[in-house]
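In response to the reviewer comment on reproducibility (Comment 2.3), we provide here a single inverse folding case reported in full, input and output, so that an independent group could reproduce the run without further information from us. The structure tokens appear first.
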């Protein structure tokens, strides 16, 4: 089984940089490739959380706490629901995908108090702002605002 990873990015900068520069022919080719990708977005399954990046805070990376190797942090997309497991808490809610657009509702979160809540805090901040999803090689998903 292939390990799937998810990278959450809270920035519009990545999208803007990808669309700037190049000539018209390259842009049309890129647009056609993007349309093909959009039609095939499938997020179903379990994705491991690799990192969460916020560009508005000096590019701070919040990596899931790797000290607890027995606990894998992940998100599962199934039917129209998502489930997130962190080191300490879980978050679940509904989602909808249309093309490359994804909408995740705020969801419900368990409220266990833990020593390191960085991932939970980051997820609370980013989930309502996620707007697009990109899948690379069926193993990496990037969620952008």
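Designed residues, in position order:
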């Amino acid at each position: 089984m292939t390990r799937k990873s998810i990278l959450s990015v809270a920035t519009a900068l990545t999208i803007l940089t990808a669309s700037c520069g190049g000539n018209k022919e390259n842009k049309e080719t890129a647009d056609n490739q993007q349309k093909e990708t959009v039609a095939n977005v499938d997020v179903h399954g379990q994705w491991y959380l690799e990192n969460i990046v916020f560009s508005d805070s000096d590019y701070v990376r919040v990596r899931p706490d790797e000290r607890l190797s027995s606990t894998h942090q992940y998100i599962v997309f199934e039917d129209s629901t998502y489930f997130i497991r962190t080191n300490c808490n879980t978050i679940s809610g509904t989602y909808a995908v249309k093309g490359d657009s994804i909408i995740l509702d705020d969801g419900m979160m368990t409220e266990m108090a833990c020593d390191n809540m960085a991932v939970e805090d980051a997820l609370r901040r980013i989930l309502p702002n996620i707007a697009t999803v990109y899948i690379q090689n069926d193993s990496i998903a990037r969620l952008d605002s």
